[in-house]
Amino acid sequence: MSSTLQLDEKALRAVVEDVLRNLGRGPVAAAPAPSAPAAAPAAAAPAVRRSGPRFGVFDDMKDACAAAQAAFEQLKDKGVAGRAKVVEIVKSMATAKAKEWGKFEFEETKIGRLEHKVAKLEIVKLVPGVEWLNPYGLSGDHGITMEEYTPFGVVGAILPVTHSVPTLSGNIINIVAAGNAVVFNPHPGGARSAAMAVRAYNEAIHAALGIENLVCTVEKPSLDTFDALTKNEHIRLLCVTGGPAVVNAAMKSGKRAICAGPGNPPVLVDGTGCLKKAARDVIQGGGFDNNLLCIGEKQVFVLEQHVGKFLEALKGAGAVQLNAQQLDKLAAEAFTFTKDAGGCSHPAVNRKYVGADAAVLAKVAGASAPAETPILFAQTDVENLFVMEEQMMPMIPVVAVKSIEQGIEFAKKSEHGYKHSAIIHSLNVDHMTQMARALDTTLFVKNGPSVAGLGLGGEGYLSYSIATTTGEGITTPKTFTRTRRCVLVDSLKIY
Question: 415: which of 79, 195, 228, 352 is 20 to 30 A away, CA to CA?
Answer without folding.
Answer: 352
